[in-house]
Design brief:
28% of the residues lie in helices and 23% in strands. The chain contains four helices and five strands. Strand 2 and strand 3 form a beta hairpin. It is elongated, with a radius of gyration of 31 Å.
Length: 168
Amino acid sequence: MTVQLDRHYSVELQVSAERVCQLRRIVAAHLRHWSLELHIRPVCRGVEELLTNVHRHVGDNNCVVELRWSGRHLTVSVADNGAEMPRLLSTGGGGLSRVMALSDSWGTCRTAEGKVVWFTRYAKEPRPVEPVPTAPLPGVLEFRRPPAAVPEPVPETTVASDTAPALV
């Protein structure tokens, strides 16, 4: 199986509570398509946190969500036109502290239009799994038939011999 490296997906959307749920499903579908099923839950939680922060702190606003997978690292970024840079707060347990807990690294960057908040996860290229041969399952008719009669084993008889060699 050859995996195409440097996969990329980008979408521009108007942030709202309804769109956050829709984008979670879209991100999950892309991760499944890229064979990154193990990362669906944490990545979707991180995207949800970033989009909720945009909705809460910037308002109903256009933003760009981008996924990029290099074959080793998955980077997720959310760009918006809000001027205020996000801060990691020690209280609450949500927002950027949750993104930090779900990722290997994260950061922010000011842009000419606003800012970008991103996080990365180590997401190694999946290895193909060789199928294991299994015996076919019995059919319905085989369950209904009585078991075949198995003959009783006949015990072996041994004949003692006077000519057996003596053990020394």
